[in-house]
Amino acid sequence: MKLFSYILVYRRFLLTFCTLLVLLPLPIILHTKEAECAYVLFIVATFWITETLPLSVTALLPALMFPLFGIMSSKAVASSYFKDFHLLLIGVICLATSIEKWNLHKRIALRMVMMVGVNPAWLTLGFMSSTAFLSMWLSNTSTTAMVMPIVEAVAQQIISAEAEVEATQMTNCSGSTNLGLEMDECVSEHETNEKKEKAKPVTGHSNDAGKTSSKLESGKNAVTGTKYRTKKDHMMCKLMCLCITYSSTIGGLTTLTGTSTNLIFAEHFNMRYPECRCINFGSWFLLSFPAAIIILLLSWVWLQWLFLGFNFKEMLKCGKTKTVREKACAEVIKQEYKKLGPIRYQEIVTLILFVVMALLWFSRDPGFVSGWSALFSEYPGFATDSTVALLVGLLFFLIPAKKLTKTTPTGEIVAFDYSPLITWKEFQSFMPWDIAVLVGGGFALADGCEKSGLSEWIGNKLSPLGSLPVWLIILISSLLVTSLTEVASNPATITLLLPILSPLAEAIHVNPLYILIPSTLCTSFAFLLPVANPPNAIVFSYGHLNVMDMVKAGLGINIVGVAVVMLGMFTWIVPMFDLHTYPSWAPTVNNGTMP
């Protein structure tokens, strides 16, 4: 028993030592560059999946092991750790820092929710839409962390308002000899109908859930320890939590900068296929935006049906008196928006720079017309999306936000300097350096696989898969990625699989985009577990959910996500990149060797 406790305490150390030892025969016995690179690849993959070491620390292993095995020089492998991706990330983080510093994200979220109204179903869609929109430009984690306090305030305000109304009704009717009859007389007809609707079984739940919808729920919030007033209140809290975390993930799909996995794919693709130049901000948006919209709407329908039922008649009602729940919800959102005050100069400037950055990204090389990059035709491919991000990002350090004043000995207040929109210290607090190192390690790993010949070897061994239908290969790779990303971090998953999937596509003579695009999108589908990604963990920490709630809801959205991605790969995405044709920019495999 004591031995077991020691093993449990030092399990990470033992796993690290055992992994290095168990895999050691691979480079010793085979003694080829491919085997030595595979040894490094397996070690990094094991440590990323088990998180024996911090992800960023594991990402440094190629820099240590490749020079020792003679795969790449230390100087060459070090250059792999800083790419165009990192410059793009720096510019985007400058924008995100200013947006969050001046509360522009909160104003956008509340305004979008106010636009859709306070009907419970439409309110949920409003929160999902605003969260998804913010997640297009900010990190999924920061978006969730920002929106959840607003959602929690709305939910608690709704619950407390309904409790006060019921308490008032009971007080007004107390002392009556026939309580049930008196209640009918003192409650308005609208509120009576509302109570009757509450007593009906809710579509999408068991009969027990419907029967207890107007009774006290015996369960408690795992964090606060407070009881839920009704079953419906508990379900509403679960619905709102899940709609925030899932919509932040879905919104991140739509732009290259929306999530790190998209950026990792773009950098890997442009490095491996430099002659393509077909993946940029505009082309990615056009291929992913329709998929994200469909997934978002179907997720809304699924979550609404699963937790509260889907009442079309209630949703489509117009001009009728608002319920107590809707009035309470409208009031708390209105008060939150009032707290922001009138829009400030700093918010306006941030919004202008945000729009300018987006327009420059879209217009750089739209594809159907010549973009502004044509002005630099002497240097084709030199100006990229990172150029735009850096240009706008530097402006945040230059444009004045407010004057800095001091008091002179005579008591006069004078300005002596100005403060820019963001400072370097504020930028550093937002910059995800761990992701930057993690991604750099992935690029180094990919370069090592290429230099050692491991990528070519993998491609040759996977070539028999060419006998399978293309749709089946895409489905298998999508399901593999979706399953792996539930237990490993999203960046680690895509970084690990891209060097394997690219040679697979080349070996079976299929356009690499056919496999890489769906695999990249599916890497974000970490919906099942609280530990699958940070947004899931944030909403889980509020105590409304249990693991089975997330598994039940996430499984449906995983199925929806994979199905929509598969649909897109055979409809609107095909003509964008001519996916049915093997491109000239991709290498070919002839008789087991690469030219």
TrEMBL record:
Keywords: Ion transport, Membrane, Sodium, Sodium transport, Transmembrane, Transmembrane helix, Transport. Residues 190-218 are annotated as: Disordered. It comes from the Eukaryota. Pfam families: Na_sulph_symp. GO terms for cellular component: plasma membrane. It is a multi-pass membrane protein. Residues 190-200 have a biased composition (Basic and acidic residues). GO terms for molecular function: sodium:sulfate symporter activity. Residues 204-218 have a biased composition (Polar residues). The chain crosses the membrane at residues 12-32, 38-69, 81-99, 119-138, 239-265, 285-307, 343-362, 382-399, 470-501, 513-532, 553-574. It is found in: Membrane. Belongs to the SLC13A/DASS transporter (TC 2.A.47) family. NADC subfamily. This is Solute carrier family 13 member 1 isoform X2. It comes from Hipposideros armiger. The lineage of its organism: Eukaryota, Metazoa, Chordata, Craniata, Vertebrata.
